[in-house]
Amino acid sequence: MFSVGSFSFGSQFVLPRIPENIVKMYVSKFRPTVVQESKLTKDAMRTMGPAKVELPSPDKYLKKPSKESKPLEGEFIYLVILSKKPPVPSRTDNPLIHTKRDFIKTATAVPKKQQPMWVDTNTGHKQPLENSGLVPKYIKKKDYGKVPAYLQQRNEEKLRAEEEYSKFVQEQREQRAPRRLPDEERRGVLIKTRWYDENNFIYLTPAGYFVTLLRFRVNYRFIELQTKKKMDNRTE
Question: Which residues form the Enkurin domain (predicted)?
Answer without folding.
Answer: 145-196
